[in-house]
């Protein structure tokens, strides 16, 4: 894909929040570039307060950046008039953690709401809403009120509403954070389905690697207003570079709890972490090492995931063998594209 | 029955019919309440909406205008009503041509109630979920659409509650206005009942005012129940 397919292009974005009385300002977003390709599902992950919401609110200019440029759908949003910006916003749908539905309106009326002021006849409007409700699997709830729905159903209504003006982009700000794991998966699957069916570009914000893992093709990791790491899902998941990215991956793979257990129970002293992506060898790595270097690898933990039809594995092993053999084996693993990292168990915090 | 009423409420019976009797007083109280409610309602609603919209976190922030309007509303609201009645006499005369009688009471009632209602409207509208407002802005709604279709629609139950509260406090004010020359049940209670030592008149005037309050409260509660989902 080339730069020309970019549907969202943010450059050098800073967002400062200042209090009027004090001279203090908070830089919520710091020097961020973000490019999202047409049709992509792009994940932005970070801890609370990292600046994720502030950053995505720049995409539809709900938040005006202090510096930087914002190009969306081929338009320079900062150059638009108020009326033009409103039109541009209609093509950027948004869903939220707390659904933000209108309690005084039925499901139907909520979904029809963005069509206010559009040129549709009552009949066309009805067709449109009926179709949208079908798309999200809620045809039977048209006359219900939001208070009568479950969290997952409410988010489906919100998704239908966000799609009412046929947007090219859908922004999801922690849309699954208030839902249980099963409902989360349902909603994520719905987003994936909509991405396929409507070719809609989706930007997903979350603090859960699990959500990213399930649907995103690309990931950016945010911390203190900056994007500190970005890449394809496989890159981030297979070879996270920064400490924060590693923490997120570890929480998704249960690696952190495994490390804590190893430390607590003194299972091993010299632990190596192996990360690999794709079919690296025909034989399992452990057998390979034994055959080639006469090295016994004791597997303390292993997690293998299928992400986008590719194997992504993490292993914690302890080697039994001579120092030279271990060094040679590590070099060999590196050749295979397996990243190896010696774990400093003293750095592991036990909770 | 007739006998009991005659013996327990002799003065009420004497003072029942006619423009200067209870019938006229009830009419005057209703007139003062509803005409001033109409004007104070419209004025207060507009002021309340403006206050919410131009607040710092509103959809069209305007800090300086907000500061002024906020102070004015507070100031007018702080004037005790009895004093307000006297102070704005000349202004009243200018607008409705008289300072006494139910019509003369309208101007002070409206001026006294509008800022109170404006605050109530402001509080009611601030209850509207900011998330819903954000969603509406993200959809590219105009400010008018947001005011009408989000603030007023979503805030309606709270607005009805505020309206009920305001109407009840307004009934109280009409009694006070009545006592100083506005007519109505307040006048009945004070000028006839209290000053001529006809306690039964005072008592019945009070009961009638309470009935009016209960009716308003009941209607308000019923409406809120209907509006909530
Ligand atoms: N309107 C605002 N005024 C002042 N500071 C703000 C405002 N909005 C956000 N901030 C600050 O900017 C920083 C980033 O906030 P933001 O909401 O973007 O984080 P986030 O990554 O979305 O976090 P969360 O996961 O909790 O939603 C925080 O320090 C926050 O306090
Ligand atoms: Mg957020």
Automatic annotation (TrEMBL), chain A:
InterPro entries named in the record: AAA+_ATPase (IPR003593), ABC_transporter-like_ATP-bd (IPR003439), ABC_transporter-like_CS (IPR017871), ACT-like_dom_sf (IPR045865), MetN_ABC (IPR041701), MetN_ABC_transporter-like (IPR050086), NIL_domain (IPR018449), P-loop_NTPase (IPR027417)
Domain of life: Bacteria
Record GO terms (molecular function): ATP binding
Keyword tags: Amino-acid transport, ATP-binding, Cell membrane, Membrane, Nucleotide-binding, Translocase, Transport
Domain ABC transporter: 10-249
Protein name (record): Methionine ABC transporter ATP-binding protein
Protein source organism: Bombilactobacillus thymidiniphilus
Source species taxonomy: Bacteria, Bacillati, Bacillota, Bacilli, Lactobacillales
TrEMBL record, chain B:
Top-level taxon: Bacteria
Mode of membrane association: Multi-pass membrane protein
UniProt-listed InterPro entries: AA_ABC_Transporter_Permease, MetI-like, MetI-like_sf
Principal subcellular localization: membrane
Transmembrane segments: 30-54, 75-96, 164-191, 203-224
Cellular location(s): Cell membrane
Keywords: Cell membrane, Membrane, Transmembrane, Transmembrane helix, Transport
CDD domains assigned: TM_PBP2
All copies of domain ABC transmembrane type-1, residue ranges: 26-220
Family: Belongs to the binding-protein-dependent transport system permease family.
Protein name per Swiss-Prot or TrEMBL: ABC transporter permease
Species name: Bombilactobacillus thymidiniphilus
């Amino acid at each position: 894909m080339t730069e020309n397919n970019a549907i969202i292009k943010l450059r050098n974005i800073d967002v400062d929040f200042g209090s009027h009385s004090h001279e203090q300002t908070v830089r919520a977003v710091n020097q961020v570039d973000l490019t999202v390709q047409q049709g992509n599902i792009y994940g932005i992950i970070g801890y609370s307060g990292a600046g994720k919401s502030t950053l995505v609110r720049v995409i539809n200019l709900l938040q005006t950046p202090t510096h930087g440029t914002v190009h969306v759908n081929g338009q320079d949003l900062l150059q638009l008039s108020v009326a033009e910006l409103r039109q541009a916003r209609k093509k950027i749908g948004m869903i939220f953690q707390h659904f933000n539905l209108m309690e005084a309106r039925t499901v139907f009326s909520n979904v029809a709401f963005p069509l206010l002021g559009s040129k549709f006849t009552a009949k066309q409007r009805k067709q449109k809403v009926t179709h949208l409700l079908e798309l999200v699997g809620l045809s039977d709830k048209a006359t219900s009120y939001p208070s009568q729905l479950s969290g997952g159903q409410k988010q489906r209504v919100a998704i239908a509403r966000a799609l009412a003006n046929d947007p090219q982009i859908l922004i999801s700000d922690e849309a699954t954070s208030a839902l249980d794991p099963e409902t989360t998966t349902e909603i994520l699957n719905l987003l994936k389905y909509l991405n396929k069916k409507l070719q809609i570009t989706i930007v997903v914000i979350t603090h859960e690697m699990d959500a990213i893992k399930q649907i995103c093709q690309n990931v950016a990791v945010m911390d203190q207003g900056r994007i500190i790491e970005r890449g394809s899902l496989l890159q981030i998941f297979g070879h996270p570079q920064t400490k924060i990215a590693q923490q997120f991956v570890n929480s998704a793979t249960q690696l952190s709890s495994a490390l804590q257990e190893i430390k607590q129970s003194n299972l091993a002293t010299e632990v190596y972490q192996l990360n690999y992506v794709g079919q690296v060898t025909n034989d399992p790595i452990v057998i390979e090492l034994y055959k080639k270097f006469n090295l016994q690898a004791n597997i303390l933990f292993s997690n293998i995931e299928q992400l986008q039809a590719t194997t992504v594995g993490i292993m914690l092993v302890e080697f039994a063998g001579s120092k030279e053999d271990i060094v040679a084996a590590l070099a060999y693993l590196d050749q295979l594209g397996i990243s190896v990292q010696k774990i400093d168990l003293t750095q592991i915090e036990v909770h | 029955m007739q006998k009991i009423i005659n013996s327990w409420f002799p003065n009420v019976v004497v003072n029942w019919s006619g423009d200067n009797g209870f019938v006229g007083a009830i009419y005057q109280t209703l007139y003062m309440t509803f005409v001033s409610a109409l004007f104070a309602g419209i004025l207060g609603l507009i002021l309340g909406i403006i206050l919410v919209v131009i607040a710092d976190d509103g959809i069209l922030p305007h800090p300086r205008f907000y500061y002024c309007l906020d102070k004015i509303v507070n100031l007018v609201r702080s004037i005790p009503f009895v004093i307000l009645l006297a102070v704005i006499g000349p202004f009243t005369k200018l607008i409705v041509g008289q300072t006494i009688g139910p019509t003369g009471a309208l101007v002070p009632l409206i001026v006294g109630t509008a800022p109170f209602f404006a605050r109530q409207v402001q509080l009611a509208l601030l209850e509207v979920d900011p998330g819903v407002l954000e969603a509406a802005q993200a959809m590219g709604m105009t400010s008018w659409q947001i005011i009408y279709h989000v603030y007023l629609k979503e805030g309606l139950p709270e607005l009805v509650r505020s309206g009920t509260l305001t109407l009840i406090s307004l009934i109280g004010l009409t009694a006070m206005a009545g006592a100083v020359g506005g007519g109505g049940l307040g006048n009945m209670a004070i000028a006839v009942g209290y000053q001529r030592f006809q306690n039964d008149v005072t008592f019945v005037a009070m009961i009638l005012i309470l009935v009016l309050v209960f009716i308003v409260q009941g209607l308000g509660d019923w409406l809120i129940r209907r509006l909530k989902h």
